[in-house]
Amino acid sequence: MTELEAGRAQALTPVRGGAALHRYRDVLIALIAFAVLASLPLFTGSKALLDFVIRCSAYGLFATSLNLLVGYTGLTSFGHGMFFGLGAYSFGLIMQKLGVPIPVAFVATLAITAMVAAIIGAICVRLKEIYFAFVTLAFQMLIHSTILSWASFTGGDQGLRGGIPRPAFLGIDLANHVHLYIASCALLILGLLAMRQIAQSPFGYTLRMIRDNAARASFLGIDVWRAKLTVFVLAALFASMGGMVMALFVSGAYPEFAYWTISGEGIFINMLGGVSTFLGPMVGTVLLLLLNDTVTRFTEYHGIVLGVVILFFALGLRKGLLDFVAEWFARRRDAGEGRHA
Amino acid sequence: MTRTRTPGISRRSTLALMGAGAMSLAAPWVARAQSKTIKIGMPTILSGRVAQLGTSSRNAVMLEVEKVNAAGGLAGRQIEMVIRDSKGQPQEAARVSRELVNTDGCELLIDAEASSGAFAVHEVARDLGVFCIHTNSETSALTADPKQHIPNAFRTARQGVHDSIVGGSYAAAIAKAKGLKKWATCSPDYAYGRDTTAEFTLYLKRFAPDVEIISESWPKLFQPDYTEVVTKILQAKPQALYSCLWGGDLTSYIDQANIYAMFGQMEVFAVNMADYTALTVVKNLPKGIHSGNRYIKTFPTTPENAAWGDAYKAKYNEYPTNWSWENATAVMLMAEAAKKANSADGKKIAETLKGLTIKCPFGADGTVTMRGDDHTLVGYAIGWGTTIPQEPYVPEVKAGDWKTIFELEAEWKKSKGYT
């Protein structure tokens, strides 16, 4: 260890302690969030609200996992929806054809997703920017076409028919609406917490470095390809979890889940909520679903309304909502410090 | 005089506002308890490529609901329709249906979704136990497959296998009479296109065993350019062509094939031609295309059917579609069942609906029946005829024989392992 390094190591120690503190804080926030969400059915009998939170879980997991790629690593994937669809279909098919307990199907689906993501990722992450975006899109269309044409197995464009069986396990009966709701909340919170850990870990900072300057990261001895592939697979796993929640919610899986529009929605959610904060995509999810649900109640011209909202965010704010709020707070704080100084 | 009141909202008006707010919040519950209206939810496709069909479903339902309401409503309760767009996405169809039942308080559902959306709504009906009529999905499995069967769901749409049996026997008769042995097919590349074509050729070969399929084309759904498909078919030189392209795809196909004078070189059987959405849009409708009836006001040739088509046109300034009659039939059946059961309760309507036969302008013999054992509509007008370029477009339609349909359908169900 050189003198310089030793000095830096000393300087780093308190930061590490701070990281541990942050980690406990994150866990605490997650626990509180889960407690609040889980106690919601006690206060309200609104099934629509519970439905809304279940859908937020599915899309939230998906969009936040996309942000691991877009916001943290600088990999703009246009095909992330394929893992959402893959999760929904794998889970649905395993439950329908094999009739195994739900946790087994859950783990098996994650294993399948990891395998497929590793293969697709190995090809895609070598590419940069627009090439990466388009090759992921191509793979998405490949998976979508496979679902459509392999009708004897996947049901083609009619989707998985006949409902997904949901046998009870460990006293949890996902056919029960409240049980499904609590399970979705649990998956969402666990998923978010895990992704937060990834983002805040040294690996997460490696990703940020790759995003900002891949050549420098490479010169520092980081295997850029391997880091990108790892995050690609990890993000796929969480997207797949989102797909499973959606499959449980609609009790089926449909080719639309693997279509490019789902990826587009993911990108849109990230634009709405913002990619520079961890919870940006979650805010975006709530915003988009809220907008979608209220606007479709009143008009069939929802496309126009959503388009105007996109324009407002893209041209007006020029960033996502949470980015905007975070910057506003930062400016206020700086101004405040400036006054005190 | 001094002003004692500060400008702004006074306490009294605040209280009044709060009271009004509470009233308006409570109003739906009070209204639900007191009024006799019954809400019927209807998810359908009102935006995107097939919005025209969704709109025509809504139009037909509103036309019939007005009549039912004028006659006293559904077992004495006025119907209020809550119609919402699903954008043709199954997850949205599921969400919207759940919202209609759970939030808007709809007691019955008319599911005007196509293909995968209908299966998504079917799962909601299974989950919530709400009464549901599928009006647009022609996929046979929806009612034929016993795994799909639930006591509270019905279908008033035509069924793919019925169409194929009638089309196959009609085409076989012409094939035999004109000696058409070499056939080509050209259908959209998705489940409906593949299944319908397979079933059609199955029955065609059954009635005319020496028919041979020499060329198959599978253009993509919503494909804009059909040049390669048309030239491929022309090179194969078939004597006849079968196609189940529909809507905009069919009209662009015909417009493009016209350039190659294709329709003079072979007999064309296009099952989805005889629908006003296709007939009125094609630039030069060739004479002599064979087509199944979708909706046409001249078949069945009854005054009731013609009057219904004219009433629709008078109200909406366009002709009804295939989806229109299917949705109108759903309302007619529900109204009759509610009358018989003397109740608008979903369970009671479902019980009465089983095996119910009603008078209907779209019936082959003036009546249609909701078959009891698989909850699907039978006895509707089904037939084939040839086109002419102007109204009435398909002057003579040869009606299909329901006895044959029933026999072959039973056989088909057995072969699929459904019975």
UniProtKB/TrEMBL annotation, chain A:
GO molecular function: branched-chain amino acid transmembrane transporter activity
Pfam family, one: BPD_transp_2
Transmembrane segments: 27-46, 52-70, 102-123, 130-153, 178-199, 229-254, 266-291, 298-317
Lipid metabolism is among the record's keywords: no
Residues making up the signal peptide according to the UniProt record: none
GO cellular component entries: plasma membrane
Compartments, record wording: Cell membrane
UniProt membrane topology term: Multi-pass membrane protein
Keywords assigned: Cell membrane, Membrane, Transmembrane, Transmembrane helix
PANTHER family according to UniProt: ABC TRANSPORTER ATP-BINDING PROTEIN, HIGH-AFFINITY BRANCHED-CHAIN AMINO ACID TRANSPORT SYSTEM PERMEASE
Protein name: Branched-chain amino acid ABC transporter permease
From TrEMBL, chain B:
Protein name in the entry: ABC transporter substrate-binding protein
Domain of life: Bacteria
Signal peptide: 1-33
SUPFAM superfamilies: Periplasmic binding protein-like I (SSF53822)
Organism listed in the record: Bradyrhizobium cajani
Protein family membership: Belongs to the leucine-binding protein family.
Domain Leucine-binding protein, first and last residues per copy: 37-378
Biological processes per GO annotation: amino acid transport
Pfam families in alphabetical order: Peripla_BP_6
Matching CDD domains: PBP1_As_SBP-like (cd06330)
